[in-house]
Amino acid sequence: MNHPSVHPPLSNIQVELLKLFPNDIPENNLAELRNIMARYLMDKARDKADEIWEQKGYTDEKLQHILNEK
Q1: What's the sign of the alpha-carbon dihedral 39, 19, 11, 3?
Q2: Where are the domains of the chain?
Q3: CA distance 54 to 49
Q4: So what's the pLDDT on residue 6?
Q5: Which of 2, 26, 27, 62 is found 20 to 30 A from 20 (Cα to Cα)?
Q6: 68: closest CA among 8, 31, 54, 60?
Q7: What pLDDT does residue 1 have?
Q8: b/e 30-68 (16+ beta carbons within 10 angstroms → b)
């Protein structure tokens, strides 16, 4: 059987997640872990969006103007 090689090497998060596999994690705990990871990634994306918003000098009024342009 042909086994594909992994390129590029695994990231640090992939390695940490793989460490969970030997353990039998109940489905409700697995769902909780998914939610935690999703919330973490959402928070990081929101922080980056806020940073860009500040850098660009956006305001609610400017956003409304952009949305109302045709």
Answers
A1: negative
A2: 27-68
A3: 9
A4: 53
A5: 2
A6: 60
A7: 52
A8: eeeeeeeeeeeeeeeeeeeeeeeeeeeeeeeeeeeeeee
pLDDT value, residue 4: 58
Which residue is it, tokens 């956006």?
A: 58
Question: What tokens appear for 33 in the block?
Answer: 């872990």
Q: Above 70 in pLDDT, residue 58?
A: yes
Residues 6+ apart with CB under 8 A from 20: 33
Give me the pLDDT at residue 7, please: 67
> What element of type H or E holds 5?
none
